[in-house]
């Protein structure tokens, strides 16, 4: 006979109380630099875009300055948001928290993982950072992308996750120990 008993929601573990490790402090300047390049390009396009309308030509420097000010604000917000990111690797899942205005917490069960890879852009490599992409069954792209890990930390987490995929260390009671913060 089939049975599907209800579970007391108050007895469930709170993911918000899971201990999380902050990503590297180098992510904030890296993310700000990437954002700065985008906004500088947009400001330059607005400033140097040929305009034939005389009214728009008079307002063009003011519009470009407004885009530049908005860009500075976005760089500052991106810096603050990057400083708040954190992740956690537990025995049965991996957690990633991000967001400043809109908080996003992703939890991916390790039993769903299919593939793990590391990625880095030239700017990220200059800061010594790597992104860890986790792919699950049925997804087309990375279902979890942890940005701001040092290369050593990303490799250690990747090895642990891959060992769980292979089933070699399936009885491993805990993920690799993580210090309170990323090494500089």
UniProtKB/TrEMBL annotation:
Keywords on record: Membrane, Transmembrane, Transmembrane helix
Record domain YdbS-like PH: where: 83-161
InterPro entries, per the entry: YdbS-like_PH (IPR005182)
Residues spanning the membrane: 58-77
Cross-referenced Pfam families: bPH_2
Identification of the protein by name: PH domain-containing protein
Naturally occurring in which organism (per UniProt): Litchfieldella rifensis
